[in-house]
Amino acid sequence: MRRTVVTALAGLGSVLLSVGFATPVSAAEATCSDRPESDAVALELIGYGSTKPFGFRSDPDITVVVEAHPDTDPANVAAISEAIEVWNAVLQDCLGGAVTITEVDSGPGVVSRADVVLRYTPHWSGVNYSGLATCQPQRCTVWIGGEPPLGHGGGSASALDIYNLTLHEIGHVLGLLHATNLLESTDLMGYAWPSIGGSTEIPISDCDVDALAYVWSWAMEGTEPVPPAAPTYDCSRS
């Protein structure tokens, strides 16, 4: 039996998917072995139960346009770009270059053709630290907010906060939902890592890359695109 759920928490992201109860038996394997160990029990996967991959996910070369409000801190915008670059480097290292995610400059016609539009608007959510990733058939839109609304107290998110949050939201774009032990896990795809504090860079874990190797196994093997055949990836396999 499958059930449809929406998971959301202010400060992180929200994605819709169908959740079942199975574990992949075999898949292409990540080509790196030096990623930090995850404390997630399992990672939920986006796209399970679909008749075809979500829109751009049938193309493993993903482009991202970043649109930042003119009043944003340049250091925070740079942190967003760095997070995209780090994800791409990890994909190159761990998935053998079969999947890429790269930032492209905005310009006439570019935004409409990009696979992902990432909008950084400091006050968009009414809280001082929030992100949201939503995927439609042809593209994903990611919202990042890093400052309190005008007229309210509270400090702004640091560039490192924005970097970590962008890593999390790009994880959704690539096909990961959340850790099944959501509120306890400090994995990038969990919800407990913000409690660690703003001075810690959250790493992309062994389970994150192994789960993506499963999601993108068709690209790594050079076969036709297919959605995940299981709803979760068991992190004990990493």
From TrEMBL:
Residues 1-27 form the signal peptide. InterPro entries: MetalloPept_cat_dom_sf (IPR024079). The keyword Glycosyltransferase does not apply. Keywords: Signal. GO terms for molecular function: metallopeptidase activity. It comes from the Bacteria. The keyword Cell membrane does not apply. This is Matrixin family metalloprotease.
